[in-house]
Amino acid sequence: MNPFASSGVGFCVYEVRVNGQMTTDEINSSAFEIDLTIFQFQKGDKLDIQIKHKDGCSPKIINPEVLEPQSTYLASYLKVSSDGEFSWKTTGESGSLPFVVEQFRWNKWVKVGEVEGKGTATQNSYSVKVSPHTGNNRFRIKQVDYTKKPRYSKEVRFRSMDSPVTFSIDKNDDNIIFSQETMFEIYDYYGNLVKKGIDARVSIANLKKGDYFLNYGDKTETFKKK
User: Fold this and answer.
1) pTM of the model as a whole
2) Considering only CA atoms, which of 176, 177, 197, 196 is closest in space to residue 186?
3) What is the pLDDT of residues 150-173, one digit of tens each?
4) CA neighbours closer than 13 Å in the CB half-sphere of residue 125
5) Which CATH class is domain 74-160?
């Protein structure tokens, strides 16, 4: 949208450049389009648009989202190693967007890692350290672009033969002690998340008295803070 100049003579915008090159678009109107097709860009190419305008007025860009990266990746070679390294390869990326790694735990998908995408269409390799629980594990990657709609990879499954995690509460009612380091979540009676992380010992000294739900390993249990 291109308003009149503050002087009332002519329009606000007087020049548009794409990657330093002046465009041939007709800009002397109340609205105009910047046509990028003539530049023959490929997805992922660097793009810099400069809109020069007079003082005392400002043009308005109607659809800036078309310049945002899009999620177009194709994921392959998804694998979880025995030491907890989740790796994958992609092709067809068209702009740098973060890859979120999710693990299915406690009957829901939980974020367990994130890595910034390289954004190029050629083959890219990624890896993230994860913490598999005992038994069967499911992992996937997710990417969200300007449409806000998540785009998922296929799932990769991994079976861990580690011993099941157990927990106890010390006699002073100050700490939860796990048999080994594990991912955990603590919710109060009303379903509010009060603590989360990865550890073998968790302080609960600052929690109010009452009943709590504890997610850890691949289990969900309850405990009472006295």
Assistant:
1) 0.74
2) 196
3) 999 999 999 988 889 999 998 887
4) 4
5) mainly beta
